[in-house]
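Quarterly update from the structural biology core.
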Amino acid sequence: MGSGLTVAVFGAYGHTGRFVVAQLRDHGFVPVLSGRDADKLTTLASESGLEARPASVDDPASLDRALAGAAAVINCAGPFATTAAPVIEAALRARIPYVDVAAEIEANVDTFTHFADRARAAGAVIVPAMAFYGGLGDLLATAAMGDWTAADEAHVAYGLSGWHPTAGTRASGVVSGQRRDGRRVRYANGRLEYRDDTPPTLEWPFPGPMGPRAVIGEFTMADVVTIPSHLSIPDVRTYMTVEAARDLSDPGTPTPAPVDERGRSAQTFLVDVVVRSGGSERRAVASGQDIYAVTAPLAVEAVDRILTGRTRTVGVASAGEIFDAPDFLRALSPYVSLELRR
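Predicted structure, tokenized:
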């Protein structure tokens, strides 16, 4: 557990940031609240009794003050196309690990592209996409692979009961759409491909109790960055239930509403990951409640493992590469139900 270590949370007052702050406290860490909006920080500090340190990504000195004395930083502030690089630079200056919850494909590509060599040379740890999208799928795919050193294809199917996106999710989606000129993206033949055609709709055989559901094929998420970053799989496809995709595309869909004492929404999820090699298939399935809330135990467990030396590499690394994937997933048992099928 945290043993009183301080962890800076950039974007602490956001929807996911609040879950992360609460999870850090539950694990014995002392969160330091940071972000761009001083008024929101002041309000959260008053509610929580925690220290607030306003900082802006265009003011490196303010980021240095925010991270001073911290053992690690978790970046929860999107769009990550804007925030990731400045906060990573601050973490490198402070010589502390960096973890973020970025779901933006392009922002995660940037992190691997621009910081891999520097972080490795410095012995630093940078873990992008340590969240429901990107981190969880990567852990599941890695666990499903087991002793396989390569596979022909990986499929990550998201069975969401619905999707009430946060303002941050919508803002990040706008930035990603602009960066790819309105095109969609998929990972095939060992690389990202940008396309102008309409993605297919098909039926995915989710296991019970969900069962077969209509999904948008090639509804591409951050898994197409995290999984191929360390697993030899030339084709990685992700899918989304039609209902959830419709919610996301509707500008009138409300933001998440809390229904329990943890502040979670009623949303449920089932993530079905299938890896195939030749004629063989392996599967990992995870289910739980609220994709935003479950990001908090993913990010905080990552920080705890980094700070206690339970890692396998340094540099920029995805969850499945730097952590023992099956063991990490077992640690999430209070929040995620897991099944491995080999």
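The longest strand covers residues 268-277.
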